[in-house]
Model the fold of this input.
Amino acid sequence: MMLAATPVVVPLATAVLTALAASRPRLQRAVSAAGAVCFLLCGMWLVARTAGGDPVRTVFGDWPAPFGIEFVIDRLGAALILVTALMGAATLLFQASDADPAPRSPYLLPMMHGLLAGVGASFATADLFNLYVWFELMLVTSVGLLAVGGAARQLDATLKYLVLSLVGTLLLLTGVALLYGATGHVNFEALRAASITPVVTILVGLVALAFLVKAGAFPLFAWLPASYPTLPAPLLALFAGLLTKVGAYAVLRLLGDVFRGAPPVLYESLGWVAAATMLVGVAGAACQWDLRRILAFHIISQIGYILLAIALGTEAGDTAAIFYTLHHIVVKANLCLIAGMVWRMTGSYDLRRIGGLAAAKPALAAVFLVPALSLVGVPPLSGFWAKLLVLRGCLEAGRFTWLALALAVSFATLYSMLKIWIEAFWKPHPQAHWAPPRDTHLAPAWVATVGLALITLGIGLFPGVLIDYAAAAAAALGRGR
Amino acid sequence: MIWAVAIAVGVVSAAGVYLALSRDLFRCIVGVSILGAAAGLLVFAAGRLASRTPPILIPGPPGSLRPDGALQAVGQDALGLAANPLPQALVLTAIVIGFALTCFSLVLVVRIVQKLGADEARDLRLSEAEDGGDGAP
Done:
């Protein structure tokens, strides 16, 4: 059964086909759109197939179980793959508008689909070394996408991203190698059966550290605000939505599933790292004026919430982490896309130079408010339920310091979102005779952002469906340990 | 043998870290790729080092290679002292990826030097401008 391989086969095939069609832009776009729709359908199929609780699995090359590379897609993986495909479709749609699109390079679409393949495969694989390979695929395609514009500041950003990410992946490689040396396995199923000796504990910590670099956690997040703000809007949305969340997912898979019940010191340290991540991210955002920089720092602070939920080490915590990740991918990507539309209307990302959008474009203001308030956690939007689950998890685990910190960071997030609201939308434009441009081509951007905002609203109004799903996915983690 | 490899890993990673911390961009890239070599050595050392027996099974009676448990028994007898092929495969994968990334980063540094005329990390402040960004797309 090759269904488990579709999250990598479909986007990778699309990447190859779009690369072959590089000299014919129209054909290339058609192939890319078809591939994105196909990926989306595969995601839905996977969610439907795994909803009963039986994971979809494939072992490549007919090797017996712990020796071959295995793909296992459970409910957690299937939901994340579906959201990945959704993000791919939304950003590709947005790219058709003129709101800060990525430069029309013939290699843009192959790299975007390559990135989706890396993300999708990371959610599907059940093999630690294989996960490292997919991290490298994500790295290769994302540095390509960072550099594709070719401007000096983008090349600068690419170098910083590349060097710091390379150190992270080398750390991962080292951790995987030593873990293999200590246990004799890289397969998740076999690692679940391995006993957690003190040496294994240290090595699990090392691998988790490497994942934390990818997730952008304190103190290893320096690459994120240095590189993300140079990206064009659709790519920023794709990166902001997916890449750091792969790191957070990997931490969940490691500490919440494969090595569940590892010594408490790991969870304790992760919890404090998460608290520092939340605080630093939100404090970093408070002193920024560039819309994209504010959003970049908020990725860091929101990753803190997800890590905090994982650090609780309880089933309620894992449920919160899963719900939070799914909700956050949609919200964050949508905010980045809306930032692109703000740029198109006002001509700048700098909040000090723009304004007057609430009067000139009330519809855009309304669409902005949905993800912005959801990020803060205002009911009845999806972020409210996500934060409620995290807070309830903290309460049940008796972690009152973490609970207080999470609440405080929530208020600070409100400050940042209000700042964007007041500066970009509410205050009058600094130039008295400013009027939004008329010759815009924003229809695809509207479809993408309104669609994502509706998903946020839908999760907020009917949270039970997703909470039940997340709880079922969390309950299945750590089986067999 | 294992001590020789351990010392080699230590020396190579020290050299890599030293170069990677340099402000000169080319040195930094070379340092990171040397770090990659150290990680490769470490992966290699995670298997069995000293064995010179090839990990190849001579087929026994028909059916003994089937995955119904027979493989394990034959494998433990025949392969207990053989060289471990898995870390070697992992190392090859890591080397190939590392090579591609090193090539990319060298080209990237050349482009940066051409565009900015600078190969010092201190001069690269474009993506993190002091005033918090100029709002350019």
Remarks:
- Chain A is about 75% helix and 0% strand.
- The mean pLDDT of chain A is 92.
